[in-house]
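Quick illustration, no need to memorize.
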Amino acid sequence: MFTKDEANKSNCDASCLAKWPPLLTQGSPKLGAGVDASKIGSAMLADGTKIVTYNGMPLYYWIKDTNREIPLVSVGSVWFVVSPDGKKVEGPGEAKSTETPASAPAAAAAA
């Protein structure tokens, strides 16, 4: 999740989405084990595609996570993994990178 998003609204612009690809859906998202069906939904992005939401928060992948695994908890103190209860996961696991997170330009696991 991106802490600069609003409930059911992505504030990640095109350059942000290039580094934080959205978890998209064309219909009803398929749920995995431990996912609370009452928290799953979708929201419209600026280009008309639908991003999956969990507990109202749009979900994204991290472009450097090429295996679509979740190797860390947060990036740049604005990107967090979402727990099954729909809250951001905080704690050890901050990404250390010389690259500025895509969120920095004023506005990006499935996270």
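The two ends are 5 Å apart (CA to CA).
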